[in-house]
Specification:
With about 270 residues, this protein is an alpha/beta fold. It has 12 helices and 10 strands.
C-alpha cells in the first residue's frame, strides 16, 4: 500500500466558509482524511490587500506542510484569486483553488451568456472569475457584485434571517436587472445562504456552488497523480483534524452545524510563526 495515498488533504480558508468544501470532500471522496485550517483570527480576507492575503496563505501552507499533506485545497476564493501561483511555488504537492472549477461549471451552465459572480471585494476586484470565464468563452458577459456583509452574516449564523434576506435583496437587485441566468457563489461562505439567494434570484437562475465543483475536480486531480485513497479507513481511524487561529469553541459549534461528521475538537495554532 502506497503511504502517499493514505496521507491527508490540507484544506484552508479565512474562517468557517471552507467547511462547505470539506463537506463536499467528505461526501464525494469519503476515504480521504482532511486537515482543515480556518484563519478565524484574521477573517475576513476579502477586504485585505493581495500582499496581506498572500502572506497569510503562505504561513498556512507552511503549517499544512508540517502535517505531511498530499494535496492542498485553497478553499477561499480571495486566496485562490490572489495567491494561487505563490502557493504552487511554495509546496511540491498538487494545489487546487475554488475559482477555476466554479468558472468552468458556470460556462457549461449558461444559456444566455450572462453570468453573475457574487463575492468579497478582493475576489470581485481581482476579476479572476472574469479572466477564467473569458478564456473558456470570450463571448460570455460576466457581471461581478461585491457582497462584503455576507461573510459576517454567515459567521454570525444568520443564515435564515430577515436581515440577511434584506441585504441579499439589495445586493442582488442589479444582477436581476441585467437578466443573468447563472450565478456563481464566489465565496465559500455563501452556500450557507443559498436558499435565500435562490429565493431572491428565482428559479430561472442556476446557482453554481464552487465547493461542489472543487471536490469533483479534486477527485480527478488525486486520480491523475495516483494518490487517491481507495482503501476504506478502519473503524476508529482518526479521519479529520481541525485547526484554527482563534476561537476554537465557537468554530467547533459552527462546524458541527455544517458537517454531519461530528467534530470533537479544534486546536488553536499560532500560524504567524510559520
Amino acid at each position: 500500500m502506497d503511504n502517499r495515498k493514505e496521507a491527508p488533504i490540507g484544506v484552508f480558508d479565512s474562517g468557517v466558509g471552507g467547511l462547505t468544501v470539506v463537506k463536499e470532500i467528505m461526501y464525494q471522496i469519503p476515504n480521504e482524511k482532511v486537515i482543515y485550517f480556518g484563519d478565524t483570527a484574521r477573517v475576513p480576507y476579502g477586504n485585505k490587500t493581495k500582499e496581506t492575503v498572500t502572506k497569510y496563505a503562505l504561513q498556512i501552507v507552511r503549517f499544512l506542510k508540517t502535517q505531511n499533506v498530499k494535496a492542498i485545497v485553497v478553499a477561499c476564493n480571495t486566496a485562490s484569486a490572489y495567491a494561487l501561483e505563490e502557493i504552487e511555488q511554495e509546496i511540491d504537492v498538487p494545489v487546487i483553488g475554488v475559482v477555476k472549477p466554479g468558472a468552468k461549471m458556470a460556462v457549461e451552465s449558461t444559456k444566455n451568456g450572462k453570468i453573475g459572480v457574487i463575492g468579497t471585494r478582493g475576489t470581485i476586484g481581482s476579476e479572476t472569475y472574469t479572466t477564467y470565464i473569458r478564456q473558456l468563452n470570450p463571448n460570455v458577459e460576466v457581471i461581478g457584485k461585491e457582497c462584503p456583509l455576507f461573510v459576517h452574516l454567515v459567521e454570525e449564523g444568520l443564515w435564515e434571517d430577515p436581515v440577511t434576506e434584506e441585504i441579499a435583496k439589495r445586493y442582488l437587485m442589479d444582477l436581476i436587472d441585467v437578466g443573468i441566468d447563472t450565478l456563481i457563489l464566489g465565496c465559500t461562505h455563501y452556500p450557507m445562504i443559498r436558499k435565500t439567494v435562490q429565493r431572491i434570484m428565482g428559479d430561472g437562475v442556476r446557482l453554481v456552488n464552487p465547493a461542489y465543483e472543487t471536490a469533483r475536480e479534486l477527485k480527478e486531480l488525486l486520480k491523475g497523480h495516483d494518490i487517491l485513497n481507495e482503501q476504506t479507513p478502519g473503524l476508529g481511524t482518526n479521519m479529520h483534524r481541525f485547526f484554527v487561529s482563534d476561537a476554537a469553541e465557537r468554530f467547533q459549534i459552527f462546524a458541527n452545524s455544517i458537517l454531519k461528521y461530528g467534530i470533537l475538537s479544534a486546536k488553536v495554532i499560532h500560524v504567524e510563526e510559520y
